Amino acid sequence: MMIKMGFAKEWVDLIMKCITSVAYAVNINGHRGRVFQPSRGLRSVKQSGLVKGARVSRRGPEISHLLFADDCMMFGEATEQRARNMKEILKEYESFSGQCVNFNKSTIFCSSNTSAVAKELVTDLLGVRNSSNPEKYLGLPNVVGRRKKEAFQTILDKISLRIDSWSTRFLSQ
User: Distance between CA 148 and CA 45 in Å, rounded?
Assistant: First the structure.
């Protein structure tokens, strides 16, 4: 995708290395410790097969989670076992971090290929509400689909109105 957008292959390879592998080094009193790879967490759970992510495209990487500030989007199959695994992961997160997942503010969105029975089962197991509309995140649509122009038209309209108000203000001075 990035190559089609005009990015150089070397740049795309560098980005892919960053998002497909991870290693840490801890600074203690100004001295850098040994580099190590984490053996716990969402990456290791995904590698163990407990969680199966989703692919954005046929050849794209499998994405199991996206983290931003204090939000997390998790992707997976709508099966009883995967839902139980995800619930256990969230319980462990709460235990380790001291934070609580707000299931009242959490939503599940299933593909149109998911049966109504599977949707209800997963929704009940996770204790979240089901949404037929994936809503927006940070003012942008979560799912764009093939109609990109329609998906982003409201944003374009808001930007145009803002720019028009600027030019009117500055031209009148």
Answer: 33
Q: Which residues contact 81 (CB under 8 A, 6 or more apart)?
A: none
| Mean pLDDT confidence for 25-36 | 85
Q: What is the mean pLDDT of residues 47-70?
A: 77
pLDDT surpasses 60 at 11? yes
Q: What does the alpha-carbon distance between residue 33 and residue 38 come to, in Å, rounded to a whole number?
A: 14
Strand, helix or coil at 137? strand
For position 143, what pLDDT does the model report?
72
Measured distance CA(58)–CA(76) in Å, rounded: 16
What value does the mean pLDDT take over residues 67-85?
Answer: 85
pLDDT at 92: 85
Q: Hey, CA dihedral for 67, 57, 148, 108, is it positive or negative?
A: negative
Helix (H, G, I), strand (E, B) or coil at 130: strand
Report H helices in the chain. Answer: 9-20, 42-48, 80-97, 116-126, 148-171
Distance (Å, whole) CA 67 – CA 74: 9
Q: Which residue has the tokens 């292959």?
A: 9
Rounded Cα distance, 117 and 87, in Å: 19
